[in-house]
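Lab notebook, bench 4. The sequencing result for the construct came back, and we need a structural model before the next group meeting so we can plan mutations. Quick request posted to the team channel:

Model the 3D structure of this chain.
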Amino acid sequence: MKLRLGVIFGGESVEHEVSIISAIQAMKNLDEEKYEIIPIYIGKDREWYTGKLLKNIEIYSDIELLKKYAKNVVLTNRKNNFVLIKKTGIKRIVDYVDLILPIVHGTNVEDGTLQGFLELIGIPYVGSNVYSAAIGQDKVFQKQILESSFIPVTKYIWFFDNDYKENEEEILNNIEKLGYPVMVKPARLGSSVGISKAKNKEEVKESIIDAMKYDEKILIEKVVDNLIEVNCSVLGNYEYQEASELEEVMGVDEFLSYRDKYLGSNKTKGAKGMASTNRILPARLDDKIANEIKETSKKVFKVLNSSGVIRIDYLIDKKTNKYYVNETNTIPGSLSFYLWEATKKPYKELLDDMINLAIRTYKRKKRKVFSFETNILSNFNGLKGSKGKLKM
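Done. Here's the predicted structure in token form:
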């Protein structure tokens, strides 16, 4: 019997379209002899849809047409069966799901929000849990945790938007102490959205205003000199970790931007998502530093309690050979399959590994105690001091 695999993608996120590209890539590479693939698309309006037509990228050019022919559903637990129920009209069961593969990017989905919902209804899912997903989305949390584990990160400061409005000069002085140029980032976005490089005070002020359009939490990082950007993917769980080959990414812009990652130089290239990025694979590094980065990647994965496949992005000063963790991506664009193909692991096999890890995680969790059979409220006779009544 095939495993009924629900692939969730989309969501109210600035990385909505990126998620669609990544999900369709994955659905085309899943082994259809093992899995019944059930696409589950979350629109920007937060409505959920399913239907075979959602496997075709062309349908997303006309969202109103998509909504007309796809089924509007909700995912729920009905007597320990996970079902997609039609939301409008007769609320009948549309499909059954055994396991969820989330391929979502950005706020409101990748940041633990979706994982929390899946935990709440009890359905097993692939990838990092609520805690590691939330940390993976927040670049400030990441840096604070990695620093505490003696993992190298760049010099930085951070603040909330109201702090900047109230103490602009103090914050600008602190940025001055970091030294220009700096990178200005919304703390909880991905795909390089809202990120800019600032070379002086006027530019940093403009960049902060732009970043605050996307997030109330802002990160400022010192730019690494003589920069090489390198990425490494890690597969596993807390028990074991396996590192991929390293890639050296080559951006058209001064840093690897959203355009570099997803738009490409033409429409065909952009449709390939992260797989279309200009890269040198394997990265042009000597064996010593390459192996150090792979070992550091496995440590980062474990420290953040990640699961499934993640990607860790590094900044390297090519003169000093010092490297710094830039950020982690708990559900990386294209699931970083191209990094695993370089290790002779085909995308189909990578997806199988991720799904098998999720099944093992779910079985292990089922053996843990999360609640007690006894009901301490069974003999409840009212609240003392409230005269037995609850005031609303």
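The radius of gyration is 23 Å.
Will bring this to the meeting.
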